[in-house]
Amino acid sequence: MTTPRDLLIVTLDVAPIRPLERGDLALALAGAELIDLLGTEALTIEDERIVPGLCPPTGDRLLDEAAASLVRQSPHEPVAEWLWRRGRGLSSAYLDALEEAGEITRRRHGWLPLRAGQAVPVDSPGRRHATDRWASDEPVLATLAAAIGIREEPAADAAGAVGDATVTVLAAVNDAVMELEAERQRRAIEEAAYDNIWRGE
């Protein structure tokens, strides 16, 4: 199991403290990929830019795709740009991968047999791994989950438990999620103002 898969299983298993947005999850999954690739020494972070290194196979198709998509020319890609680029469609890709691996199932409605239902984790080694990691308050998983509203901020200081490069990625995820929320609010205000104009208010 990888951090993105663990994070997705947690989002399906745990009631969030605020509504979970798919865009927020996609950004967090992209950040989780970077953190796992840091662990395999497939990249380093220098001045908030991603510098690719060796890319040994990870055994995970999506993580290998992430490593293959790293920008290898200088100047290297900033972490923030990676999150937005890699995050596109990533939630669906990981849901499909978990379903293909038998880690989740779809709860179907009896009266809508042809419609895909809610994704539900099955009892599996992958789910138990994610649950154990969650229960231990592991700092990376806890911080990513807090960024997208699955939990409050971790009690422990993540910066003291992980390296500087991982802290850089976690901070970039948090900033990107806040940026996306600000954009949602801006659009909601504009739409409300537009509706008021049509109503003559």
Give short descriptive properties of this protein.
about 200 residues; about 10% strand; two-stranded antiparallel sheet; 9 helices; lipid-binding; mainly alpha
Short description:
This protein is mainly alpha-helical and 201 residues long. 58% of the residues lie in helices and 8% in strands.
Describe the protein's architecture and organization:
By secondary structure, the protein is mainly alpha-helical. Helix content is 58%, strand content 8%. The chain has nine helices and four strands. The mean pLDDT is 88. This is GPP34 family phosphoprotein.
- Helix and strand composition category: mainly alpha
Order the strands across the largest sheet as they lie in space: 1-2
Sheet with most strands: 2 strands, antiparallel
Low-pLDDT parts are none
Spatial extent as radius of gyration: 18 Å
* Range of strand content: 5-15%
Number of helices: 9
Secondary-structure element order, as H and E?
A: HHEEHHHEEHHHH
Helix content: 55-70%
Global morphology: globular
Number of strands: 4
Overall pLDDT confidence:
88
State the end-to-end CA separation.
Answer: 54 Å
Membrane topology: Peripheral membrane protein
Protein name: GPP34 family phosphoprotein
Main location: Golgi
Organism: Streptomyces javensis
